[in-house]
Design brief:
The protein has 209 residues and is α/β, with parallel strands linked by helices. The chain contains 7 helices and 6 strands, in the order ββαααβαβαβαβα. The chain has 2 domains: 154 residues, Ribosomal Protein L4, Chain: A (3-Layer(aba) Sandwich), CATH 3.40.1370; 49 residues, no CATH class. A 6-stranded mixed sheet has the order 2-1-3-6-4-5.
Length: 209
């Protein structure tokens, strides 16, 4: 069974924690992890891009010149895609890029990514994270004490904490997520994972379902 040290804010070991095998000992297929990451990124796209067709470009209501006897090609509008200032042919239009994956596939991908993080020694478990008030300096000091300064770090907490969130939001490469908002992409893209003991307990409960 997988065991890991529980650290305090001074990086001193305060005990051992047995990690749930259903979450941290999962061998997920690379294709499943890849599909989950692509799905997450696709769902983040706003899809608000738009180009104007010749019917949307202003002007061009008048025929530029008479049909015959000019020696030029026939033209009904100066907003043709062939003309400067004309519309765009088959340009991007607003669309929804989002799509869904089966819940089992998303869960398998997430647990596979967490298991890979544990195997690579990139998980730090802390007994708890709390600040009296939001202060970036306190978060920087905590990360430095745990040897995580200068590394992209995903901080996982059990529930929303504005003091933790606001203390970390100005630190480049540091992201704070609740357990319920954890996703495969952010686990994979960060170098290190800093997670509280309570958050692991919640993951263990979710892994049983």
């Amino acid at each position: 069974m997988a065991e890991i040290d529980i650290k305090d804010k001074n990086n001193a070991s305060v005990g051992k924690l047995t990690l749930p095998e259903s979450v941290f000992s999962v061998s997920a297929k690379q294709g499943t992890v890849h599909d989950s990451i692509v799905n997450y990124l696709a769902n983040q796209r706003q899809g608000t891009h738009a180009t104007k067709t010749k019917g949307l470009v202003s002007g061009g209501g008048k025929k530029p010149y008479k049909q015959k006897h000019t020696g030029r090609a026939r033209a009904g509008s100066s907003r043709s895609p062939l003309w400067k200032g004309g519309g765009t042919v088959f340009g991007p239009q607003p669309r929804d890029y989002s799509y869904s994956l089966p819940k089992k596939a998303k869960k398998a991908a997430l647990y596979g990514a967490l298991s890979a993080k544990y195997t690579d020694g990139e998980i730090t478990v802390i007994d708890g994270i709390s600040f009296e008030k939001p202060r970036t300096k306190d978060m920087v000091a905590l990360l430095k004490s745990l040897g995580l300064d200068g590394k992209t770090t995903l901080i996982v907490i059990p529930e929303k904490s504005e003091s933790v969130l606001f203390s970390a939001r100005n630190i480049p490469g540091v992201t704070v997520r609740r357990v319920s908002d954890l996703n495969t992409y952010e686990v994979a893209v960060h170098n290190r994972l800093l997670i509280t003991k309570q958050a692991i307990d919640m993951l263990a409960e979710a892994g049983k379902k």
